[in-house]
Amino acid sequence: MKWESLYSQAKQWVNEAGERIRQSFNQRLSIQTKSNANDLVTNIDKETEQFFIKKIKEAYPHHKIMGEEGFGDKLDSLKGIVWMIDPIDGTMNFIHQQRNFAISIGVYEDGVGKIGLVYDVVHDELYHAFSGKGAYLNETPIANLSETAVNKSIIALNATWVMKNHRIDHNLLIPLVRDARGTRSYGSAALEMVFVATGRVDAYISMRLSPWDYAAGAVIIEELGGVVTNLRGEKLDYLTQDSLFVAKPGLHQTILQEYLKDGKW
Ligand code: 2AM
Ligand code: CA
Ligand code: CA
Ligand code: CA
């Protein structure tokens, strides 16, 4: 496996797909709903996923592909090389704002993250990492993450998770929201993860995401010394949905022990 050429090829495809998405801004979108009225998908999400699948199948016919919009393979194992693709992460932002969304692609070998690409299409900012070779924002290396105290940290999370809801006891996150310096909510898991990677926020919490949401971000954060787990502090399996808790080193342990350990996540 020539990882270096796969890495540069994948970056090239992401740039091409981003250019197509930027060109789509002056076309009319076709919008459909998925699991509920606020769970949206557009023709551009679908076309972008199909674009990547065609490229990957041509160049690497033996690789497997997991894609949010369902054009990839149905996987029950992560053996071999698996591409985890979210063609547009932050579709609601894409539709309403034409910004704050990203293309997210993780490439894993036997379940281990090798390459992570998160492309902020509108800002033309590609966050990328090749495991063991550093993480970059475009051509600039990203510095390793350092420790931060809870009262000096900004935590990214969705306001829904602090409201009464059927999935969790919402009261459990209130002390953390109270003690943190601030909270932010951007609406794209992939971007929120690379914001942890670049120190714009210090941690990110989500109650339920899928492997394509965090596969790329996890490679980038771990490359910089950050910690990626579910809310119980366990490793993710990259095959099923899970909660997500990513944070700087030290801060991850502190929040887990002092705020999250009693939750039934
Ligand atoms: P998406 O835009 O690719 O669907 C929004 O807070 C974040 O949660 C986005 O990264 C969004 O990804 C993700 N997400 C995962 N499952 C979702 C769902 N059922 N409805 C809306 N957003 C979802
Ligand atoms: Ca979606
Ligand atoms: Ca997503
Ligand atoms: Ca998506």
UniProtKB/TrEMBL annotation:
CDD domains: IMPase_like (cd01637). Transmembrane segments: none annotated. GO terms for biological process: inositol metabolic process; phosphatidylinositol phosphate biosynthetic process; signal transduction. Gene3D superfamilies: 3.40.190.80, Fructose-1,6-Bisphosphatase, subunit A, domain 1 (3.30.540.10). Its EC number is 3.1.3.25. Mg(2+) binds at E68, D86, I88, D89, D213. Keywords: Hydrolase, Magnesium, Metal-binding. It is an enzyme of class 3 (hydrolase). This is inositol-phosphate phosphatase. The lineage of its organism: Bacteria, Bacillati, Bacillota, Bacilli, Bacillales.
